[in-house]
Amino acid sequence: MNQVVVSLGSNVIPQENIQRARQILATRYDVCRESDFVWTKPVDCPPGSPDFINGVVLLRTSLQLDFLKQELRCIERWMERELTCLSRGSRGIDLDIVVWNGEVVDTDFYRRAFLRELTLSVLPDLSF
């Protein structure tokens, strides 16, 4: 089984979309732990973009990395289709693989302190 940290972020109906994404992930994968979910300011978004809710989940899956990425993109597209008129900088849901089997695979881990802190809250023995 592969051990994976997946980040979740939303700034469009964020409480609802984060909760929904957490439920979808829990039905498809073995979710071992979840971080707190925190409000963050938008990064690399147009001025005036709404704040985000961000968090991470630690899960186990038998899927290989590329297949899991494809599934996460499918979840994103499915959830976004239900929202009308997303503006640039707005995300109904954003799902990214941060850590794959103990290896950091998302450079945002190093650039965003909140992501590093959330990740370490579910995977405290991570060496990077």
Number of strands: 6
- The domain tally reads 1
Within CATH, the superfamily carries the name 7,8-Dihydro-6-hydroxymethylpterin-pyrophosphokinase HPPK
Outline the biggest β-sheet. Answer: 6 strands, antiparallel
Helix content: 25-40%
Q: Which regions contain 5 or more consecutive residues with pLDDT less than 50?
A: none
Q: In angstroms, what is the radius of gyration? A: 14 Å
Strand content: 25-35%
Could you give the distance between the termini?
21 Å
List the secondary-structure elements in sequence, H or E.
EHEEEHEEHH
Number of helices: 4
Query: In the CATH scheme, what's the topology name?
Result: Alpha-Beta Plaits
Structural class: alpha+beta
CATH architecture classification name: 2-Layer Sandwich
Structure characterization notes:
This protein is an alpha+beta fold. The chain has one domain (2-122): 7,8-Dihydro-6-hydroxymethylpterin-pyrophosphokinase HPPK (Alpha-Beta Plaits). It has 4 helices and 6 strands. Strands 1, 2, 3, 4, 5 and 6 form a 6-stranded antiparallel beta sheet that branches. β5 (94-100) and β6 form a beta hairpin. The longest helix has 17 residues, at 65-81. The radius of gyration is 14 Å and the shape is globular. 27% of the residues are buried. The model has no long low-confidence stretch (mean pLDDT 92).
